[in-house]
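ARCHIVE CARD
Drawer: 12
Card no.: 0347
Subject: one protein chain, sequence and derived structure
Cross-reference: see card 0346
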Amino acid sequence: MTFLYLNKPKNRSLSQIAQTLLCLLVCFFCGKVLAEEVDTNALLIEVAFVELHSGPGVGYPVLHVVEKGEYLTVQVKRTSWLKVTDKRNNTGWLHQDELLGLTTQQGEKLTSAEISWRDFQDRHYEAGVMYGDFAGAHFYNAQFAYLFTSVFSGEVSVGKALGTISDSDLYEAMLISQPMPELFISPYIGIGGGVIKTKPHSVLADSEKRQDTLMSAAFGLKYHLARNFLLRAEYKYSLVLTDRDDNEEIKVWKLGFSVFF
C-alpha cells in the first residue's frame, strides 16, 4: 500500500476540510428546518375497529378500542409495534399489520411498501459493513450510526486496509447530514476524524509502526432496498496529519449494505 503525498501546503488541505465542514453545517440547518415542517399524518380507520394494547406485544392487555371513522396519530415505533393516540388522547400500542386497514389524512390507502418506507423514515439506528479500495489496498469497514433527526446522525466506524506494503487500522467518528431523507436514493455528506495505525510488512529497522490523526470528508448515497435494508455507496477523502514535513492524503471508495432499526 502506498500513500500519495501532498504537493500543496498543509494550510491548503486544512482549508478544504474547513470548507466541507461549513457545507455540512449549512445542510444540517436546512435539513432541520425541513424536518420541522413535516408533520406526522393522521391515520383514518376504515375497518370496524382496532385494538390498542398497553404495551408493544399481543401479551399486553387491550386498553382501548378505536372504531371506524376515527383518526390515530403515530407517536413512537418499536420493532413492529406503534404507539398511537386517538382523538380522546387515549394512548396504546398497535401492530403495524393493522395499518393495512387504515388510510392517510390525504385519503391514500397504506400498502406494505409504504409501511416499510415509514419504517425507513422513522429509523433510529443503522449498522452495516462495506468493502472498497483504500489507496490501492483492499478495505473492509464496519459502521454503526445513531440518527438524532431524519437528516442528522453520528457514526462510528472501524476499518481494515490490507495492502502489499503495509496494513492499516482505522477508527473514526463522523457527523453526517442527509438533507433529503425523503428520497429513495438519498445523498449525504459527512465530516469527522479519528486515528490510523499503520504497520509496514518490511522488517527493516526504519520501517516502524505509526499512529497518526485522521481528518475525513465523505460524500455518499443511500438506497432503501426493502424492509429494513439499505444499499450504500461512499467516497471519502482523508488527510493524515503526520509529524513529518508533508501530510498524506487517502482516497477511499466503498460499497456495502446496512440494516436499520
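Annotation on reverse: Residues 4-34+123-260 form a domain with the Porin fold (CATH 2.40.160.20). The longest strand covers residues 210-226.
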